[in-house]
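Format notes (please read before filing issues)

Several people have asked whether sequences and structure tokens are stored in separate files. They are not. Every record keeps both together, in the order shown below: the sequence lines, then the token lines. Line labels are part of the format and must not be stripped during preprocessing.
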Amino acid sequence: MRRPADLPLVVISGSTRGMGRALALRFAALGHPVAGCGRDGGAVRRLAAELGPGHVVQAVDTGRAEEVCQWAATVRERLGRPGLVVANAGVVHRQRPAWEVPPAEFEETLRTNVGGVYAMCRAFVPQLAQYGGTFVAVSSGWGRSPRPGLAAYTASKFAVEGFVRAVAGEVPEGVKVLAVAPGSAVDTDGLATCLPDEHTDYPRPEAWAAPAADFLLHGLAEVPGGTTGLSFPDPAPAQPSASGTG
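Then the structure lines:
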């Protein structure tokens, strides 16, 4: 199906809160059709209402691969093929020593953060392989440099980095697969959970989303697939007002 100005469809998991929500709203504001998902039905409905017609938002648990495949089929039927897929859904818990992490919390972290990237890859990379496109897994600086107190999250993001590097060597020409981390932390609910005393020192998702979306659309063009260590640009600092009061 033809879209206004032929802008590509952007698919974003974990799009009902934090960075994913900010990205979804930013891409929609730029005129792109957006397909998003989240686990909370109420948040799904709120985002769908904000985005309006021409977009698809569904309740999906990306830790369940078959749910993601069903969602991908719906997205293809209603909006066509994707040009950019962002595997963003993730969870992080409060800091504690690894031996104090409950098994259920450890398993949820891996199922969501690693299994969710696998599920998004399984559902959408075959579509990208037909026409070309880009698959981005949102990583973390803690997936490149370990964070004491967050062993489960660190393990999950190290796994994402390795998974992406392997998949990048498997896809056909015309498909790019990359892991990209925020240049600095972003003040989300997840960050407030693991860094309760300093999360407000970092930019809000809305400020982060503008340069992040631009980077995803244009900054990745010359980057070889499988490149490691990529980071989203940090948002520009707010300019002081004419009165100098900020």
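For reference, the curators noted about this record: The two ends are 46 Å apart (CA to CA). The domain at 4-232 is CATH 3.40.50.720 (Rossmann fold).
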